[in-house]
């Protein structure tokens, strides 16, 4: 299980996400490492309504 949000992504995907906030606290919900050992990551501009990338 990856311990950080960028580990499971390819360099190509990471380059596409460059500059997009990761786990912004205004994104809502529990983000980052979870108590059950899982990981929830959200790349999203705070002003975006429907465009984002979430991994879990």
Give a short overview:
By secondary structure, this protein is an alpha+beta fold. Helix content is 12%, strand content 18%. A 3-stranded antiparallel sheet has the order 1-2-3, with no helix packed on it.
Annotate the secondary structure layout:
Elements: H1 11-17, E1 32-33, E2 39-43, E3 53-55
Helix content: 10-25%
Strand order of the largest sheet: 1-2-3
Radius of gyration over all CA atoms, rounded = 11 Å
SS-based class: alpha+beta
Shape: flat
Query: How many beta strands in the DSSP annotation?
Result: 3
Q: Order of helices and strands, N to C?
A: HEEE
| Alpha plus pi helix count | 1
How much strand content do the residues show? 15-25%
How far apart are the termini?
A: 10 Å
Task: Provide an overview of this structure.
- This protein has 56 residues and is an alpha+beta fold.
- It is built from one helix and three strands, in the order αβββ.
- It has one helix at residues 11-17, and strands spanning 32-33, 39-43, 53-55.
- The chain has a three-stranded antiparallel sheet, with no helix packed on it.
- The longest helix has 7 residues, at 11-17.
- The chain starts with 10 loop residues before the first helix and ends with a strand.
- The mean pLDDT is 87.
Throw out a few tags for this protein:
single chain; 3 strands; 56 residues; 18% strand; alpha+beta; three-stranded antiparallel sheet; flat
